[in-house]
């Protein structure tokens, strides 16, 4: 039993399918292209990645002309890079690789790409590394694993203020402001003991009760 594509979509709301992302690992060698797409060349861009904190720092106090389509496109791409670096493609170095820039060229088509697949692949890659003790930190959108355990394995240590069983995405139920209190410890030891005692009756399929809320592509 593990996280499925349907689980991922129900939890995150990111739709199934889409165009293949045109990864280009040679982007780092083209400073002019990076500047054209972002309006600046970040530190360490030549290494192929940008720190997500640098994106926030650069745009935090930067004035944007809302009538300038080029500036708005730069901001859109930077915002999406930041969100990818904080969620679907996050890593332990807190950087986002610039190889995905080609998918951001046309800002009107960013949503056409298979970001869900990239997000799931990142989660599984880090889970594999952790299970083999190649790293001690879990990358990717790890909150997805957390919500999956809460929803499917019934391992949540929290009581919710509002149950919101029909809400989509499911992760919205577990936002911090909807957590009333802890009803059990949240230590690693507690979760290990809980997992060891799980039986089929403990596993919930409630996620699939909201299939009629999902987009047709799901």
Could you characterize the architecture of this molecule?
The protein is mainly α and 218 residues long. The protein has 2 domains: 95 residues, no CATH class; 76 residues, no CATH class. The chain is 36% helix and 6% strand. The chain contains 7 helices and 4 strands; from the N terminus they run ααβααβααββα. The strands form 2 sheets. Strands 1-2 form a two-stranded antiparallel sheet. A two-stranded antiparallel sheet has the order 3-4. Helix 3 runs antiparallel to helix 4. The longest helix is centred in the middle third of the chain and has 18 residues. It starts with a helix and ends in a 22-residue tail after the last helix. 23% of the residues are buried. The model has no long low-confidence stretch (mean pLDDT 86).
